[in-house]
Amino acid sequence: MRFVDEYRDAAAARPWIEAIRALVTRPWAIMEVCGGQTHSIVRFGIDELLPPEIRLIHGPGCPVCVTPVELVDKAVAIASRPDVIFCSFGDMLRVPGSGSDLLEVKSRGGDVRIVYSPLDALKVAQDNPLRKVVFFAVGFETTAPANAMAVAEARRRGLSNFSVLVSHVLVPPALEAVLSSPQRQVDGLLAAGHVCAIMGTGEYEPIAKRHRVPIVVTAFEPLDLLQGIHMVIRQLEEGRHEVENQYDRLVRPEGNLPARELVREVFRVKDRAWRGIGVIPMSGLGLREAYAAFDAERVFDVEGVGGPESPHCRSGLVLQGIIRPRECPAFGTLCTPDNPLGATMVSNEGACAAYYRYRRHATD
Amino acid sequence: MDFQLNCPVPLRHDTIQMAHGGGGRMMRDLLEAVMLPAFRSEALDARHDAAVLSVDGCRLAFTTDTYVVRPRFFPGGNIGELAVYGTVNDLAMAGARPLYLSVGMVLEEGYAIEELRRVVASMKAAADRCGVSIVTGDTKVVDRGKGDGLYLNTAGIGAVPRGLQVGPAQVRPGDAVLVSGDVGRHGVAVMSVREGIAFGTPVESDCGPLHGLVRALLDGGVAPTCLRDATRGGLAAVLNEIATDGRVGVEVLEADIPVIPGVEGACEMLGLDPLYVACEGRMVAFVPGDAAARALEILRATPGGEGAARIGTVTEKGPGTVILRTRLGTRRILDLLSGEQLPRIC
Q1: Residue A47 clears pLDDT 50, i.e. is over it
Q2: Is the pLDDT of residue B1 over 50?
Q3: Phi, psi at A43, each rounded to 5°
Q4: Are A358 and B333 inside 8 Å of each other by CB?
Q5: How far apart are CA B189 and CA B172, in angstroms?
């Protein structure tokens, strides 16, 4: 496939692997921030191609995984109402709340629909004026502009039956949290390319400086990842800690300015709980007061809804790179994709799901 | 008959979920927990697409399938063709020559008779193409709102050539794994209409009959050890089923699995894996290693098999496990899906 096959070509990958081998003189731990990068790494076995000195650590960048259990419970409560059409991206449907998930709500008769864009949900609202249509606005900076657009558009069209359940999180504060942790194991970072395509690279400069950590904005294909790893290792070996951009075919330093403006117009930055990690200050987005009428949490009054997480789930430690999926005692026993305790096992991009799906047994 | 109604596999859900019909692990668990213990029989235990039964010295293949596809008309086919080809294909996968079909229809009150005519005409044309006769049927009408327009069930009978044994139990290490063409088309074609997504390249369903390919192999002197059409759960589900039921390992090469750019692009965009996307006119054939080249030659020379490819080999290692050798040369598990494939956020 044009523009994809080129980045998965074994012959083109080989020189990068050799170049990485030639650079490394001591052990280094690199965190790939994004769950999409984690899945690419495990799906293509990129970690197996690297010299043993390099350890890849999976980061907190899976929006499905970090959506707090309380918000999933609120989604379940809202979707269970007979007057509601609940729209969501597909991968949130199987994420367990404390008691149920959205697929179970659907099987019990709830009107839960998969959409591919928040604007599709807007159309559902327009087509069903007598029902209340709620969109589960999940994601990092990547999906925030489209979600902001849906809300702004709903106001412009005067749609009073549309609202969003907002679960937006921001990457830089999470990186701050990971790098400030006394248990920090990370020497360098592969930043998430799509996030930077929207937000640019400016916010990463002070983080790289403060924590003396190289940050390389990296895309998702095998060749991108190998090149990004090479750039991080080169900085580490040379004692540098700068922000570099591997994904320059898409990422500009200033990001996508109209998208950023739209996000600023509709959302404000606020404190936010991350599933398994806890509250990270100023790490999430919520609707501004001017858009409060589109806030599903206010429309449906779900204050106080939300149960506890499984005490056996250690996905928070996995998300922070403190343990690997297989080091969790519940991995593959109490916790499987059929019976997930936490979202890292159920999400398409979760680290535990990647290990269960691709590495459950030794493959040799 | 000794009925066993105890449940050997604990099920996570106490109600049916969509994924129980998705061809993945949940469907397998449901069969093992509910259906198989209750209905146990030698033919059912063979775990094949069609049951092979001996009747007065003749071996008959017998199968049934129900079709609930939405939309009923999709690029490259419709529910009627699907219902004929699907059952013909299940018979063919037992090595049988398809002979007779039955058709059961569940019609919803208010369904347009004009559309029913079109569906029925397609069924007749498909049956003629396969050389089978539709010999019996049943019609039920359900209240409006309770039937989604039209559901079809077809059952079929075919004759199995003397001495031919095709099924998971026959598969041996060293067997070659072939596919009859590119995978994932049907699922993407249906999704593009159902979800209203326009992909760069329009993708048509591969919906079509497989009995001609099987006949060509047998006439050409190649006796497959196992055949399976890659429907729900796609290629990955078939390989896993055969590995588990045949107690063998399977290793496939990602780079050798044919996928057309339109399917690859659509899957890339939605975060789906084409190896798990349904086909309706593709079979996976396990043939003895020394017959692989001949089998490929025959398939490629037969209509519907032009895109046939060898994608892997049966191994002794890791019975029940399918290993995928990636394009980068690394190895990983190609597992059964846990639920349905769900499109991702970003």
Answers
A1: yes
A2: no
A3: -65, -40
A4: yes
A5: 35
Q: What is the pLDDT of residues B32-44, one digit of tens each?
A: 999 999 999 988 8
Q: How much is the average pLDDT of A102-112?
A: 94
Q: Under an 8 A CB cutoff, do B268 and A364 touch?
A: no
Long-range contacts formed by B12-19: CB under 8 A, 24+ apart: B12/A338, B12/A339, B13/A104, B13/A107, B15/A104, B15/A107, B15/A108, B16/A107, B17/A103, B17/A104, B17/A107, B17/B339, B18/A103, B18/A106, B18/A107, B18/B340, B19/A103, B19/B338, B19/B339, B19/B340
Who contacts A195 (Cβ-Cβ below 8 Å, separation ≥6)?
A34, A61, A140, A141, A142, A171
| A285 and A263 Cβ atoms separated by less than 8 Å | yes
Q: Enumerate the residues of chain B whose CB falls inside 8 A of the CB of residue A364.
A: 331
**What pLDDT is stored for residue B3 in this prediction?**
31
The two three-digit tokens of residue B230, written as one number: 């890659």
Q: How far apart are CA B69 and CA B148, in angstroms?
A: 10
For the cut 60, the answer to whether the pLDDT of residue B346 exceeds it is no
Distance CA A193, CA B134 (A): 57
Closest chain B CA to residue A107: B17
The pLDDT assigned to B191 comes to 86
Q: Which of B251, B252, B330, B333 to substitute to test the interface with A, most A CBs within 10 Å?
A: B330
As to burial, measured by CB atoms within 10 angstroms (0-12 exposed, 13-18 middle, 19+ buried), residue B41 is exposed
Q: Count of residues for chain B?
A: 346
A348 vs B18: CB contact, 8 Å cut-off? no
CB contact under 8 A, B335 and A8: no
Q: Taking CB atoms and an 8 Å cut-off, how many pairs form between chains A and B?
A: 114
- Please tell me what DSSP assigns to residue B284: E
User: What is the rounded end-to-end Cα distance, in angstroms, of chain A?
Assistant: 30
- Cβ-defined contact of B18 to A222 (cutoff 8 Å): no
Say what the pTM is: 0.86
Q: Which is higher by pLDDT, B146 or B24?
A: B146
User: How many other C-beta atoms can be found within 10 angstroms of the C-beta atom of residue A82?
Assistant: 8
pLDDT digits (tens, 9 = 90+) for A186-213: 999 999 999 999 999 999 999 999 999 9
**DSSP designation for B18:** G
pLDDT at B6: 32
Least Cα separation, residue A265 to chain B (angstroms):
22
Looking only at the bridges linking them, the beta strands covering B58-67 and B51-55 are antiparallel
CA B64 to chain centre: 12
Q: Of the candidates B272, B201, B289, which has an alpha carbon nearest to the alpha carbon of residue B233? A: B272
Cis peptide upstream of residue B258 (ω within 30 degrees of 0) = no
Asked which of A304-318, B144-158, B223-237 is least confident by mean pLDDT, the reply is A304-318
Residue B277 has pLDDT above 70, yes or no: yes
Angle at A225 between CA A219 and CA A227, to 5 degrees: 105
Strand partners, A56: A30
Q: What is the pLDDT of residue B7?
A: 31
* Count of alpha carbons within 13 angstroms of residue A119, beta-carbon side: 4
User: Contact at 8 Å (CB) between A58 and A38?
Assistant: yes
What's the CA gap between A328 and B269, in Å, rounded? 32
Q: What is the mean pLDDT of residues A225-230?
A: 97
Pairing, β B133-142 against β B97-108 = parallel
